[in-house]
Design brief:
Radius of gyration of chain A: 30 Å
Oligomer: heterodimer
Distance between the termini of chain A: 74 Å
Helix content of chain A: 25-40%
Shape of chain B: flat
Number of strands of chain A: 17
């Protein structure tokens, strides 16, 4: 039965803004030299082993900002087209909670390090995939500021089982954290997810965060409401719901889609509109696939921000900013369009190569290795992409690793690709050779020598090829005539016949060329 | 007074609330005298020192010996610091 009141709603426009926390993978923490668990070298350290007097807020301990963390934050800010504050400060955000040893979090209140940026989202099709035919959307970035992460609380004993208290592990306390805040510019869950993916990719290509979702290196908090156009022409806005701490794209999408469907129904039921004090906080239940109300902590937003007297201002001078800017690598979006433009890859292929920074670096190294072998430009980009996405990706998926860790080196792959380009390997043999070159005992072997030893190379016997072609043409006069009169695709049948005669010693591409040479004028 | 006390997780009795009210009013009143100064056109002070922050190189340093955090806490559970049960969600921050 439809909810009473829901028929008053003519249309619904979803409005979403996002807060995203990214744990920066500096080696040490934000304000001290304790190792940082968001850096892979210190991941999984025993509880409360990455702590020092600053982390625990012991009397007399003083914070000192980490230069690398500031630099990482500026890199992300620049990638998001933000202005960078040349003089920025630190503020104390006070709240009492056992995950926060000092009783306050050092954050940035009124002078964030990065502010006023924007990124352009590509147009998306109905399934949320990039579609160049559709209009994209510019997403405003309000700010990106630095702060420190809090510790972790356990509400059950580590082995499972009930506990009459809460356990605190302060390893994560003090981890450098970048909070990116967008304008409420998203109009669908797809757009929010596309942005989340984009930001994760940017951070990984910049090398500022591992962004391992399962480890909570990147966490999403969408602020969701809806503009309801009513049948009487009025437009009402539903109260904003903030969904806390989502650490997968699936839960981000789920939370937004759930709220998008739920908020009009909620409004029909209670007629509550957006206004002061109406914002609520909800969590996401992965099992039930719905948002759930969180108990509101009274005065939770009364953080009593004030400048931290322990920390002088951070000054980012021209020289430093210029050196950070100069050191920025090519960003994923730029790479994607370059692959499409220069190598003729499809957007989908380019996106697949850009999914993992390691795979992307492997791909680009292979292209570089192809140049001295006589294959360059678009041809090298296309050839390397074929191998990485087919022979490479298939094996990588089987083993659950990245192409770059299969064991084959970019120079070995370049060698295989060059042999293929010279017509000395069939596509099947090239794939087989790719497999051999992944085996540890073949590391450093010359691919051509290995191919010869394994009998994979095509024997160049031009006289035999000529003979086979002539025989096949003679036996199939009608098909040959078709090809000569312009039906080039008919040559496929003749190629098949020649291949039957030749066995492994010929490759289809060479045979096709030889046949066309004989049958087509010019 | 009650609100400020709760934010600081203090639970003063009624008599103490009254005395604190007087004390705090005196403190705030004293600080409020700064308003008498004409600060038009003066940039807000970020820090008493004009000296920019010294930034540390990103090199891990020593940590406290393992077990120290738990040993310093009034209550512990293995390597963990144990506290009274709190809500299952994250704190107000981060």
């Amino acid at each position: 039965m439809p909810l009473p009141g829901i028929e008053d709603i003519k249309s619904v426009e979803l409005i979403v803004g996002m807060e995203i926390h990214v744990e920066l993978a500096a080696r040490s923490k934000m304000f001290c030299r304790s190792p940082n668990p968001a850096h892979l070298a210190f991941d999984g350290a025993p509880p409360n082993s990455l702590v020092d007097p600053v982390v625990l807020g012991l009397p007399g301990a003083l914070p000192v900002p980490n230069r690398a963390a500031v630099e990482s934050a500026v890199k992300v800010g620049l990638a998001l087209n933000c202005s960078i504050a040349r003089r920025t400060k630190w503020d104390r955000k006070s709240y009492f909670y056992p995950d926060l040893p000092k009783g306050y979090q050092i954050s940035q209140y009124d002078i964030p390090l990065c502010f006023d940026g924007s990124v352009d989202l590509p147009g998306l099709d109905d399934r949320g995939q990039p579609d160049p035919e559709r209009p994209g959307r510019r997403i405003g970035i309000v700010r990106a500021h630095l702060e420190e992460d809090a510790g972790k609380l356990l509400h059950e004993s580590p082995g499972g089982g009930a506990l009459d208290g809460t356990l605190a592990d302060f390893n994560r306390a003090g981890t450098p954290l970048l909070e990116v805040v967008t304008q409420p510019d998203f109009r669908s869950a797809d757009e929010a997810v596309a942005f989340a993916r984009m930001l994760r990719s940017i951070c990984r290509f910049l090398g500022v965060s591992e962004c391992v979702m399962q480890k909570g290196h990147i966490r999403f908090e969408p602020n969701i409401n809806a503009a309801l156009t009513l049948r009487d022409g009025r437009v009402v806005r539903t109260p904003i719901v903030e969904v806390k701490n989502l650490n997968s794209f699936k839960s981000l999408r789920g939370a937004i889609e759930f709220e998008a469907a739920e908020q009009p129904a909620r409004w029909a039921h209670d007629r509550r509109e957006m206004g002061r004090g109406t914002k609520t906080t909800r969590g996401w239940d992965d099992r039930l696939e719905r948002t759930v109300a969180q108990r509101e902590k009274e005065d939770a937003d009364d953080y009593r921000y004030f400048p931290d007297p322990d920390l002088p201002a951070v000054v980012i001078d021209d020289a430093w900013l210029a050196s950070i800017r100069d050191g920025l690598p090519e960003l994923p979006a730029q790479r994607e369009s370059r692959y499409v433009r220069e190598y003729g890859l499809s957007k989908k292929e380019a996106a697949a190569l850009l999914d993992e920074p390691g795979t992307c670096r492997f791909y680009e190294s292979t292209i570089e290795e192809l140049v001295p072998l006589g294959v360059a430009g678009a041809r090298a980009g296309r050839l390397a992409a074929n191998f990485v996405l087919q022979s490479g990706q298939r094996r990588a998926n089987e083993r659950g690793v990245g192409v770059e860790t299969l064991g084959i080196t970019p120079s070995a792959l370049a060698r295989i690709a060059a042999l293929r380009e010279e017509g000395r390997l069939s596509s099947q043999s090239a794939d087989e050779l790719f497999g051999f070159m992944c085996e540890p005992e073949n590391l450093g072997m010359d691919a051509a020598a290995l191919a010869a030893a394994r009998g994979l190379l095509i024997v160049r016997d031009d006289a035999a090829l000529e003979r086979w072609c002539d025989e096949v043409i003679a036996a199939n006069p009608k098909v040959a005539m078709d090809v000569t009169s312009g039906k080039v695709q008919a040559v496929g049948r003749l190629v098949g016949e020649v291949m039957k005669m030749a066995g492994a010693a010929a490759d289809a591409k060479t045979v096709r060329e030889a046949l066309l040479r004989k049958l087509t004028p010019g | 007074m009650r609100k400020v006390a709760r934010l600081a997780r203090l639970d003063p009795d009624d008599a103490r609330v009254e005395s604190l009210r007087a004390e705090l009013s005196a403190v705030i009143g004293y600080v409020a005298r700064v308003r008498a100064v004409d600060a038009a056109g003066v940039e807000p002070l970020v820090h008493v020192s004009d000296e920019p922050a010294h930034l540390a190189e990103d090199a891990p340093g020593p940590t406290l010996p393992e077990g120290s955090a738990a040993a310093m806490a009034p209550e512990s559970f293995g390597p963990y610091v144990k506290v009274p049960k709190v809500l299952g969600d994250e704190g107000g921050g981060a």
